[in-house]
Amino acid sequence: MNSFTTLFEKQHVGELILVILLIIYLIMGYQTPESVASVIDTIGGKIVMFVIIVYLFIYSNPILAVLALFVAFDLMRRSSNVTGSKFISKYSNNCEDEKSSQFSAFNQFPYTLEQEVVKKMAPIVQSGTTLTKASYKPILDNNYNATPLH
Hints:
Layout: H1 2-7, H2 13-28, H3 34-40, H4 43-59, H5 62-83, H6 85-106, H7 113-120
Helix pairs in contact: 2-5, 3-5, 4-5
């Protein structure tokens, strides 16, 4: 209760005006301008807001700091709505998950007769054995005086 009474002292008029402005912002639900939203909806903007909130918790009235924390979360939410990053992250991940599950469902094939026959066939060349000399000698067809490419 002490922090509430100190808010109304003459030396804390600036904090009282800031509390009133933050309450008006929360209640009225003003839309964030796109120029401000594009700055706030970045990592740097969120870090700056976090630093301001920590500063308020350390050096100002706790009521003002808690109210500023609520306003910061609301401002981040409204900024993500204005810039569209909320919708991009919401729908892009879901679409990719859905597509990958459909692709994996389409790529489930039963074990076919062809695969079974190929597996049972003896390999032509077994590893570790030497090849025998071929009974034929390859010849080169007429190349019509063309030069080799190598």
